[in-house]
Each structure stands twice: as structure tokens, then as C-alpha cells.
């Protein structure tokens, strides 16, 4: 806790100095109080243990059609299950002390990353490196030699793509390890 308190204080102090030096607008104390209330909500509340939420997240991401042989149907089902988990479990987590509050916040962060991973996997309609889509078993450089970029817009995550700027790389990539093995076709899966 000492390390967390110390580094948290240092980060807050640095953020305040940065805001002051760069002329950022004054913060809204009412909004800050609301955000703090949301962050601390599980503390002292009886509820679902964070470890149980994490276990449920693991079940979602470890499903074969989400993790190994990804399909649009499997990824969509994973997103649906994640939304159910958010409503039924994550919103009802409890934390008996600051340690378990941290664990609850970690579980919420894992849910956000799970959401991002599922949505990005659903968006990328090809197979590349460790990302295998059974319904799109081939690499598709003509359409998918791109990065998937996630940004926050209006309080929600927005997914875009950007071409990988290979022309600007001083060292051009050669064949990659995925060129040495063959993915099964959808009929072989």
C-alpha cells in the first residue's frame, strides 16, 4: 500500500503541475466527486468477489470460438456474454477493504480490455500471426495491412484503422513466422 500511495501521490502531483503549466481548464469539482464516488462504490459493500468476476471473464475469453478458432458468431456471443457480466456481476462487486477495491478495479479494467479485444478481433476479417479467424482463414494484406486504433469519443470507444506505414520503415520487414505454417480452411475446422 505504501508504494501505491506514494506513486499515486506522485502521479497526481505531476498531473496537477502539467495541467497548470499547459493552461488546461479548471477541473469540475462536482464531476471529480461523482467519479470518485463511482470508483469507491464497491468499498465496504457486500457483493460479488472480484475473483469471481475474473473467473467469469476468463470463461468468456477462453471459449474456442473466441480465443483459438475465432468466428464472427463466437466473438459476437462473447460480447453479449460480456454485457451480461457487466450488468449481473461487475456492477455488483463488493470490496471489504482497499486491497479488494483495487482487485475490483482490476476486474473492471480486464472487462474493458476484453471488450476491446473482442471488438478488434471481430473487426479484423482475416488471419494474421496469432489472430486466427476460422471464417477468414487467410491473411489479407490488400485490405488488412492496418493497425486497429481505439480512441475515446463522447465517452465511448471508437475503433478505426490506419495503414501500417511500411514505406517509412528504415528496416523493411521480411517474411514472418506465420509464412511458415498453414491455417486450416473453414471446412477443415
Question: How would you describe the overall organization of this protein?
Answer:
Strands 1-2 form a two-stranded antiparallel sheet. Helices cover 50% and strands 8% of the residues. A hairpin with a 2-residue loop joins strand 1 and strand 2. The chain has 189 residues and is mainly alpha-helical. It has 7 helices and 2 strands, in the order H-H-H-H-H-H-H-E-E.
Shape: globular
Strand-residue proportion = 5-15%
Assembly of the depicted chains = single chain
The order of strands across the largest sheet is 1-2
Number of strands: 2
Unreliable spans: none
Overall structural class, as computed from helix and strand content, comes to mainly alpha
The description of the largest β-sheet is: 2 strands, antiparallel
- Radius of gyration (CA) equals 21 Å
H/E topology pattern: HHHHHHHEE
User: What level of helicity do the residues show?
Assistant: 40-55%
Mean pLDDT: 88
First CA to last CA: what distance? 49 Å
- Enumerate how many helices there are, as a single number: 7
Please give a quick description of this structure.
The chain has 189 residues and is mostly helical.
Key structural traits:
50% helix; 2 strands; 189 residues; single chain
Write the layout of secondary structure elements.
Elements: H1 2-21, H2 29-40, H3 50-61, H4 64-67, H5 72-88, H6 98-123, H7 141-144, E1 146-153, E2 156-163
Antiparallel strand pairs: 1-2
Amino acid at each position: 500500500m505504501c508504494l501505491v500511495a506514494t506513486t499515486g501521490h506522485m502521479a497526481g502531483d505531476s498531473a496537477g503541475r502539467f495541467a497548470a503549466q499547459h493552461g488546461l481548464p479548471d477541473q469540475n469539482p462536482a464531476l471529480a466527486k461523482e467519479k470518485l464516488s463511482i470508483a469507491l462504490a464497491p468499498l465496504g459493500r457486500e457483493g460479488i468477489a472480484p475473483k469471481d468476476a475474473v473467473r467469469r471473464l476468463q470463461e468468456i475469453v477462453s471459449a474456442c470460438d473466441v480465443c483459438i478458432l475465432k468466428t464472427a458468431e463466437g466473438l459476437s456471443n462473447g460480447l453479449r456474454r460480456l454485457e451480461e457480466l457487466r450488468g449481473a456481476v461487475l456492477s455488483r462487486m463488493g470490496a471489504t477493504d482497499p486491497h479488494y477495491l483495487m482487485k475490483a478495479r482490476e476486474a473492471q479494467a480486464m472487462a474493458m480490455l476484453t471488450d476491446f479485444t473482442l471488438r478488434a478481433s471481430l473487426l479484423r476479417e482475416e488471419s494474421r500471426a496469432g489472430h486466427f479467424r476460422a471464417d477468414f482463414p487467410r491473411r489479407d494484406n490488400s485490405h488488412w495491412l492496418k493497425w486497429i486504433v481505439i480512441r475515446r469519443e463522447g465517452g465511448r470507444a471508437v475503433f478505426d484503422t490506419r495503414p501500417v506505414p511500411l514505406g517509412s520503415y528504415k528496416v523493411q520487414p521480411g517474411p514472418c513466422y506465420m509464412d511458415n505454417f498453414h491455417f486450416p480452411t473453414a471446412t477443415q475446422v
